[in-house]
Each structure stands twice: as structure tokens, then as C-alpha cells.
Amino acid sequence: MSLLLSQMLLLLLLLAAASAVPDGRCLTKCGEVEIPYPFGIGDNCSLAGGFSLTCKTMESGLKKAFYRNVVEVLNISLATGQVRMLNHISSVCYYPNHSFVSGLEWTLNMAPPYRFSDRLNKFTVIGCHTLAYIVSRHDNSSYQSGCVSMCQNKKSLTDGSCSGVGCCQTSIPKNLTYYSVTFDNVIRNAGNWGFGNCSYAVLLEAESFQFHTSYITTNQLMQIYSDASAPVVMDWAIGDETCEVAKRSQTSYACISNNSECIDSSNGHGYLCNCSTGYQGNSYVSNGCQDIDECNQQSNPCSDGADCQNMPGNYSCHCPEGTHGDAYNGTCIPNQKVSLAVKAVIGTSISLSFLLVFGMCICMIYQRRKLIQSRKRYFDENGGVQLQEKMTELGLKFSIFSKEEIEKAIKRVDKKNRILGQGGYGIVYKGKIGDNLFVAIKKPKVLSERKKKEFWKEMLILSKVNHKNIVKLLGCCLDVEVPMLVYEFVPNGNLFELIHIRIDIDNFTLAVRLNIACDSADALAYLHSPDSPRIIHGDVKSANILLHEDFTAKISDFGFSRLNPDDKEQFATVVQGTCGYLDPEFVQTGKFTEKSDVYSFGVVLLELLTGKKAIYFEQNGEETYLASSFILSKKKDRLKEHLDNQGTSEEDEQLIERIEELAVQCLSARGEERPTMKDVVDQLNNMRKPKQPSWTPSNTDDIQCFHPVTSDAQTFTSSTSCISEVALHIECAR
Ligand SMILES: *[C@@H]1O[C@H](CO)[C@@H](O)[C@H](O)[C@H]1NC(C)=O
Ligand SMILES: *[C@@H]1O[C@H](CO)[C@@H](O)[C@H](O)[C@H]1NC(C)=O
Ligand SMILES: *[C@@H]1O[C@H](CO)[C@@H](O)[C@H](O)[C@H]1NC(C)=O
Ligand SMILES: *[C@@H]1O[C@H](CO)[C@@H](O)[C@H](O)[C@H]1NC(C)=O
Ligand SMILES: *[C@@H]1O[C@H](CO)[C@@H](O)[C@H](O)[C@H]1NC(C)=O
Ligand SMILES: *[C@@H]1O[C@H](CO)[C@@H](O)[C@H](O)[C@H]1NC(C)=O
Ligand SMILES: *[C@@H]1O[C@H](CO)[C@@H](O)[C@H](O)[C@H]1NC(C)=O
Ligand SMILES: *[C@@H]1O[C@H](CO)[C@@H](O)[C@H](O)[C@H]1NC(C)=O
Ligand SMILES: *[C@@H]1O[C@H](CO)[C@@H](O)[C@H](O)[C@H]1NC(C)=O
Ligand SMILES: *[C@@H]1O[C@H](CO)[C@@H](O)[C@H](O)[C@H]1NC(C)=O
């Protein structure tokens, strides 16, 4: 009968069922066995290639599922890709009466998609003095493995132990589809009949088997494993491709359910489908994988007392309101009421920090207020209000700049060129106002209280000064502690630099010198004249004579401390003249008049002529005042030593002589003997006369000096020096 079975198996042709989607007609269950797709019973109910099963009604009326009508199917698992089937137990028995050995060499040839599970099955041999072989084809080569079971005496047998005494087990390799059992003749004949007449061998699910000593001594095994068959686990897989390859084929790919994934078979070729985590069901049918409602499972996945919420493919746990903790893997603990002390501390710190911020704000506002107030105070102190009123009243063009405007103007000039001069009196900055108006901003260091009070009046007077040879005062800044003055910017340096630093004697012709003298004298005469507000300059020196590119001279820095010559007090307090230029009469008497300016101008004339500084050092290192040494040489008639190598022509020499004469007049020891500035201008103009062809007698009243714009003079314009006011004040009070 068994032989017949085996032959039937071998002869069985594999009939591939047409690939089809199971429908309502297909049985999903045969007896106790669930038949999920891709398995199926009947036509068109299973996936092609060995998944078709048959369902037979046994004599007892029970239904059983069979593979190829022969091998009974016990259980199908989609999740693990395994099928549990029944395998025949091979046995051999020796009956001493006839030395008859009965038994069968059993063969089972499973075709794809099935292969014996190497993990779950063990080749098991039960008996004494038994050697059985499992023979198989494996990877196109033959495989054979034997297992020996020996028994010394009955005592050596142990229940549950299958390790060579009465029972032996051996593993099988992967990818095994063919299986046959043979018993070795030798041992069979050398049987120790004291134990039992039969030996058994079978490939079975190891877990389902437990050795009992009674299997040796009695035929209990056959009673337990009815029909001489034991469960064996088959691994199965779809096709013989890997997932990667299979996925490319839209039609044959078996994992058609949403939320499914493909897994390469771990035993041989092919792949398996499985539902993604969080889903369960049949991944081989569309929509087969359904969300797992984790929350309604027997074991709540969330912590005790936590709320569970199911989501597609997942779930979430939350501690209920009023509790906190790990809702997934822990416990939800009721929230602790915040203690009164903690509340108080928190409250206090919050209010404290609020107070701090509030206080800081107040402080900042107060500071700002104070700043604005102080600026307003300065403005008032410096007479800003009165000045503004007067200016509008008189319609004068004079600006009162705010501190910001001044700062902005200074910032608009390169950092390198910002400072024009610096000295004991303060700093002179260069600034830019509007599109391209450059200005010089004078920022004095200090100003006496009395002068501050008078400041606005002085501004009023100075703003009226308007002469082409006087640096124009454009405005002032009053909302600072010490008021600042904004002047027109004169670009080409000053006379002091021209004579003593730049030393470009060739271009510095006598004509140019005369013109500078003429311009300066004209400006001073204007200041002294009753037409102007009558101002004594007070600090006439070469450094205060600024120059334009065309050598037009501009007088600058006339001290507003000497505005009112009648005010005796200020002369006592202010001695601002520069050594070497200072009127000796003033030094003796303290009387400062227009004639003091004339004296200083005389020194400037000498500087122009001789190219020497007002105070210079002789070769012997002796400090010498230009004015006094000049007067001395004049007396000795040794003037020539002093002069630049300028006067070469006879005409020039004559001119120089006349200028010398004028200088001597200006340097007279007594003020009364000195000419007025107006006289000086006239004389200088007269010197120009013979050289001036276009000059006509009708112009005599016009004290305009002539400026020859020679190409020689123009070459000076390339000079880059921009210092307009000079830091060469020599404090006489040292
Ligand atoms: C199975 O499918 C084939 C081809 O699609 C069809 O010819 C046959 O009738 C089907 N059988 C049944 C029982 O539906
Ligand atoms: C199929 O296997 C599962 C678990 O492996 C088991 O619970 C079930 O009883 C088995 N069914 C049959 C018919 O053997
Ligand atoms: C399929 O998924 C289930 C549940 O996620 C898992 O237990 C099983 O091992 C998976 N099967 C394979 C073949 O990976
Ligand atoms: C030997 O014994 C066995 C079992 O007891 C029996 O089946 C068989 O017929 C016997 N043979 C002879 C020749 O008596
Ligand atoms: C498998 O064996 C058969 C004959 O036994 C042989 O023709 C074939 O080439 C072998 N295949 C491989 C891949 O070794
Ligand atoms: C073995 O065979 C002998 C003789 O036929 C018989 O007496 C004995 O009971 C048998 N043993 C078993 C365990 O069947
Ligand atoms: C399967 O998922 C796709 C997108 O992932 C979706 O468009 C389709 O509707 C889903 N099918 C079903 C049956 O839920
Ligand atoms: C499994 O065995 C078959 C033949 O039985 C062979 O064609 C195949 O290559 C083997 N696969 C693996 C992964 O060993
Ligand atoms: C499920 O939710 C948990 C916790 O929210 C998260 O860690 C996990 O990655 C989620 N799993 C999936 C598949 O979304
Ligand atoms: C859950 O808690 C246990 C013990 O408290 C810990 O061993 C485990 O790692 C935790 N698991 C997670 C996912 O936090």
C-alpha cells in the first residue's frame, strides 16, 4: 500500500492551475484547515504552481485537505510562509519466527513551491542498533546523512532525550525538496531483539516530537502517531525570483495588498509577502492587510490608565488630563499640585523681573529726556533762541545746525581726511553738507561762561562779515556744551605751509606773493573799516591765511574775543596772539588795537619776502624773532642776507625794496606810527600798478587786488594737502 503511495507521488504530474483571483465560490476552509489564498481548493482558486489543494471527505465524514491528493495538509501559515503536512514514518521490524523483516524505504518528492524547513524539521531515528539514512538531492548533487541509535540496556534510555541512545536526530540542509529513507542492513540483522521488534525513521517537526522509552519497548509510537505519520513543516515561496525582480512585474507580483511588503525567502528561491507592521491579514489579496486595532487587543499596548488611540498602522497612547508620565511603557501619574511656596516664588520672580524691565525702560526714557533737556539747556545757554530770532528778523543767511547734523556732516568725510587741524584751541573737522558743500567745523575745547553768554551776539556780528578774502562763517551749533562753528572750507592749505613746508619757490613768484599780501591786507582793512562790524583780527599770521587753488587768500580764524575793542576786561583775560607776530606795544601796555593787526601783518610781509619763520633759529641755534632781526639788519643795511633769491631783475628789486619799506612801517614800535590797513592796501595796490596794463586811474577807490592766474600758479593746485587751519599756535603765556 505504501509502495503504491510513493509510486503514485513520483508519477504525479504537476498540474499548474491557472492563476486566478479567488472569489466567493472558492472554499476557504477544508475541515479544520483554513485555506487562504494563494492556496486554494478547486479550479481557478489558487495561485499557479503547487498551491492548489484538494479537499476530501474521509470515511469518518471528516474533511481533510491534501496536496496532490496524497500528502495531508494540517496547517497553512501565511505570516511565516510555512505549511504543516503529514509525513509517513518509515519502520522496519524483525520477527524472529521467520527472520522476517518488514519495512519500507519511503520517498517523498516535493516540488516547488515547497521545501523542507531546515529550521523546524529534524531527521529522527528511533530504535536500538539502528542506522538510517536520509538521502536527498540537494543543489543538483546527491546528499546523504546517517543517524545511529544504539541501546546498551534499558536503563540507559531516557525520556525526552534524543541524543543517540534509543533515539537520534540530525539536521537537514536548506533547499531540500526530495527525501528518501533507507535502513542499513547490517545493523538490522544484528538487532538486539530484547528491546523491540521495530525501528523507525522519519523527517518531522522537531518541536512536535518527544522521545519516550516506551517507543523502544512497545509499539506505542505507532499508536500515538496514527496512520504512521508525523507532522513535517514545509517552507514555501512564490516563484523563484527575488523581491527586487518580482516587483518589476506588475502582473505576476503577488504582494498586491496595500500595506504589504515583500520578503525574500530564507530557504531557496522565491519570495514571500507579509503585511506591514501594524497591519494584519492576507497580503496576497487586494486590501487583505487590515489595520490592527491595537487598542482593542487583549493586552493594552499602553500603560495602565493611559488612553489608547488607534491609527492606521499604528497607535498612540496618552496620559489622561490631570496626569503625566510615560503613556507607552510606564505609568500615568496624577499631576502634583504646585505647592503654595513654589507658586509664591514663581510669582515673585516674575513680578520682580517685570519690575526690573519696567525700571530699565523708565530709566532709559529718563536718560533720553535728560539728554534732550540738556541739549535744550545748552541751546538756551548759548543764546540759541535770541540768535534765531535776530537772524529771522534781519533775514541773514546763517544756519544753526543741530548736533546730529554736525555729526552726520563729519561722518560723510573719509575717516582719514576728517581732521583738518588739532591744537590747544580744539579740533577742526572737515564735513560735508548737502550734495557737495564742504565745510570746516571748529570745535573749541572750552569757552568761558561769559563768552558763552555773548556768543550769540558775536555770531550775529560775524555772520554779517562778508568779504571775498575772508573765510565765510556759515553757521554754528548751539545745542552742545561748547558751541561749534561751521566755516566755508578752503581747499588749498595755508600760507605758512606754502612758505615753510611745501617750499615750491619757483612757482611762488613775487607776483603771487604780492597778490597774497594784497588779498590779506584787503580783508583786514575790511574788518577794520567802519562798513563792517569793526573787528580786530587779533591773530594775524601766515597760518591763518588760507589759500584757494588759484592762490586767492582768505583770512580765517579772526578771534571773536576781540569783537568789541572797547571792552578792556577781555584783554586782561585773553592773550591769544602768536609769538613772533605779537605787537610789542600790546605786550607792554595790554592795549590791543587795529594797529596790533597791522604789526602782525608786517611780520607776514617779511615772511613772504624772506621765506623765514616769524621765529627762527640762526645757524648758532639762537632763537631769533624775524621782525626784530629784520629791523636790526635794516639799520645795518644788510637786508640782502635775508631775502629769497627772488629779486633778480632790477624791477623786482625795486618792488622788494618798496615792500620792505612798507613792512618797516608796519613794524614800527609805536602803534600810532604804523599805517592803517587801508593805507597798506593802497600802497600794495600802487606797487601792482606799473605791472597792470588794464589798470585805469578811475579804479583807484576800488581796493581790489589783481590776481594773475598764471599757469605757474596753477601747478600748485595739484597739491593734495587740505589742512586749512593750523595747529601751530604758540602759547605765549608759557
Ligand atoms: C477557470 O479559468 C479558466 C480560464 O480563465 C476558465 O476557462 C474556466 O472556466 C474557469 N473554471 C471555473 C471553474 O471557473
Ligand atoms: C495551525 O497552527 C496554529 C499555530 O501554529 C495552531 O494554533 C493551530 O491549532 C493549527 N491548526 C491545525 C489544524 O493544526
Ligand atoms: C510577517 O509579519 C509578522 C508580523 O509583523 C511577523 O511576525 C512575521 O515574522 C513576518 N513574516 C516574515 C516571513 O517575515
Ligand atoms: C511471524 O510473526 C509475525 C508477527 O507475529 C506474523 O505476522 C507472521 O505471520 C509470522 N510468520 C510466520 C511464518 O509464522
Ligand atoms: C544537474 O544534473 C544534471 C544531471 O544529473 C545535469 O545534466 C545538469 O547539468 C546539472 N546541473 C547543474 C547546474 O549542475
Ligand atoms: C516481537 O516478536 C515476538 C515474536 O513474534 C513477540 O513475541 C514479541 O511480542 C514482539 N515484540 C513486540 C514489542 O512487539
Ligand atoms: C492603496 O494605497 C494607494 C496609495 O498608497 C491608494 O491610492 C489606494 O486607494 C489604496 N487602495 C485601497 C484599496 O485602499
Ligand atoms: C534549490 O534547489 C533547486 C533544485 O532542487 C535548485 O535549482 C536551486 O538553485 C536551489 N536553490 C538554492 C537557493 O540553493
Ligand atoms: C508608531 O508610533 C510610535 C510612537 O508614536 C512610533 O515610535 C513608531 O515609529 C510608529 N510606527 C509606525 C510604523 O509608524
Ligand atoms: C519599557 O520598560 C521596561 C522596564 O521598565 C524597559 O525594560 C523597556 O526597555 C521599556 N521599553 C521601552 C520601549 O521603553
TrEMBL record:
<dbReference type="InterPro" id="IPR018097">
    <property type="entry name" value="EGF_Ca-bd_CS"/>
</dbReference>
<keyword id="KW-0547">Nucleotide-binding</keyword>
<dbReference type="InterPro" id="IPR008271">
    <property type="entry name" value="Ser/Thr_kinase_AS"/>
</dbReference>
<dbReference type="InterPro" id="IPR045274">
    <property type="entry name" value="WAK-like"/>
</dbReference>
<dbReference type="Pfam" id="PF13947">
    <property type="entry name" value="GUB_WAK_bind"/>
</dbReference>
<feature type="domain" description="Protein kinase">
    <location>
        <begin position="414"/>
        <end position="695"/>
    </location>
</feature>
<dbReference type="GO" id="GO:0005524">
    <property type="term" value="F:ATP binding"/>
</dbReference>
<keyword id="KW-0472">Membrane</keyword>
<dbReference type="Pfam" id="PF07714">
    <property type="entry name" value="PK_Tyr_Ser-Thr"/>
</dbReference>
<keyword id="KW-0812">Transmembrane</keyword>
<keyword id="KW-0245">EGF-like domain</keyword>
<keyword id="KW-0418">Kinase</keyword>
<dbReference type="InterPro" id="IPR001245">
    <property type="entry name" value="Ser-Thr/Tyr_kinase_cat_dom"/>
</dbReference>
<dbReference type="InterPro" id="IPR017441">
    <property type="entry name" value="Protein_kinase_ATP_BS"/>
</dbReference>
<keyword id="KW-0732">Signal</keyword>
<dbReference type="InterPro" id="IPR000742">
    <property type="entry name" value="EGF"/>
</dbReference>
<feature type="signal peptide">
    <location>
        <begin position="1"/>
        <end position="20"/>
    </location>
</feature>
<keyword id="KW-1015">Disulfide bond</keyword>
<keyword id="KW-0325">Glycoprotein</keyword>
<dbReference type="GO" id="GO:0004674">
    <property type="term" value="F:protein serine/threonine kinase activity"/>
</dbReference>
<keyword id="KW-0723">Serine/threonine-protein kinase</keyword>
<feature type="domain" description="EGF-like">
    <location>
        <begin position="291"/>
        <end position="333"/>
    </location>
</feature>
<keyword id="KW-0808">Transferase</keyword>
<dbReference type="GO" id="GO:0005509">
    <property type="term" value="F:calcium ion binding"/>
</dbReference>
<dbReference type="GO" id="GO:0005886">
    <property type="term" value="C:plasma membrane"/>
</dbReference>
<dbReference type="GO" id="GO:0030247">
    <property type="term" value="F:polysaccharide binding"/>
</dbReference>
<dbReference type="InterPro" id="IPR000719">
    <property type="entry name" value="Prot_kinase_dom"/>
</dbReference>
<feature type="transmembrane region" description="Helical">
    <location>
        <begin position="344"/>
        <end position="366"/>
    </location>
</feature>
<dbReference type="Pfam" id="PF00008">
    <property type="entry name" value="EGF"/>
</dbReference>
<dbReference type="InterPro" id="IPR001881">
    <property type="entry name" value="EGF-like_Ca-bd_dom"/>
</dbReference>
<dbReference type="InterPro" id="IPR025287">
    <property type="entry name" value="WAK_GUB"/>
</dbReference>
<feature type="binding site">
    <location>
        <position position="443"/>
    </location>
    <ligand>
        <name>ATP</name>
    </ligand>
</feature>
<keyword id="KW-1133">Transmembrane helix</keyword>
<dbReference type="GO" id="GO:0007166">
    <property type="term" value="P:cell surface receptor signaling pathway"/>
</dbReference>
<protein>
    <submittedName>
        <fullName>Uncharacterized protein</fullName>
    </submittedName>
</protein>
<dbReference type="InterPro" id="IPR000152">
    <property type="entry name" value="EGF-type_Asp/Asn_hydroxyl_site"/>
</dbReference>
<keyword id="KW-0677">Repeat</keyword>
<keyword id="KW-0067">ATP-binding</keyword>
